Amino acid sequence: MSEPILVVGPGAVGLSLTAGLRRAGLPVAILGRDGAAERRLARSGFTATSPDGRTEKIAGLTSARALKSPARAAFFCVKSGDARRAATAARRLIGTGTAVVALQNGIGHEKVFRRAFGPKRTVIGVCYFAADRSEPGSLKLNGGEDVLLARRPGNENALEDARVLLTSAGFRVHLKDSEEGMLWTKAAFNAAVNPLGAACAVESGRLEADPALREVALAALGEAIAAAAASGHRLDYPDMADKLMLSCRNAPRQRNSMLQDLAAGRRTEARAILGPLLLAAKRRGVPAPTLEILSAVIARLERRLAKP
Q1: Which of 92, 135, 86, 134 lies closest to 113 in space, CA to CA?
Q2: With helix as H, strand as E and coil as C, how does 125-145 read?
Q3: What is the pLDDT of residues 8-27, one digit of tens each?
């Protein structure tokens, strides 16, 4: 059997990648936080439901804990705050020729992966697709298939390996010259949708359809754009508001990742997403009242989760 592709973090994004890679006939090994859960998933597989309601069984997976040699490529789909732990756990499976692809929300994790695996092997990317993993053996795909990957000096070979694998798995791959712009753009979109949807416990379509929620989402987006611009971060798109509303319309039933986390009793990525934007706003004197309120609300909800 050829070298497997390692997927670190079998959540909604990780399983979406796994489904595509398996459809392409590629071997996939999954690495999860819990060894028993990882082995169960590898043994039983999972069901993927497409946006049109079709279901298929994704099987033939391998537990990464059973691997004895390095992977062909490794896709890290863990939360930004788990980057260091995940890099340590996967280190023995990262060979000299293994492409390391980090697909996190937020800003700051890119430094963790480059320190762990070096700039030549590391590719930083972001995903623009909607998926919901409501239970371990079930994945619902709600739309989108775009993956952005950033060029950096020296990572050409790893970037090409990642591009080929993702393209073969059915994803639309876009290569970006500015890693910084790519990450800050995704953070701005996430800041406008994720905390608001999570705080109100609504799917993405409601953020576009409800006038009051739409106004709050666009206010949060405007503050994020202003904070990024004041700090010298050029975002990828001039029509950010139009793209945000289009994404909500295209995946109306999507529960964003923060909403999924709160529903499952997990901490969110709010600090990795909102933290850099709020810090940039504070340093540059940019008002960000909507982002501040959303950050405080999510923090309060997370504290409630921690109570017995």
Answers
A1: 86
A2: EEEEEEEEEEECCEEEEEEEE
A3: 999 999 999 999 999 999 99
Q: Whole-model pTM?
A: 0.95
Span 20-48, pLDDT tens digits:
999 999 999 999 999 999 999 999 999 99
Q: Could you tell me the domains of the chain?
A: 5-177 (3.40.50.720), 181-306 (1.10.1040.10)
Q: Which neighbouring-strand residues pair with 103? A: 125
d(CA 47, CA 274): 33
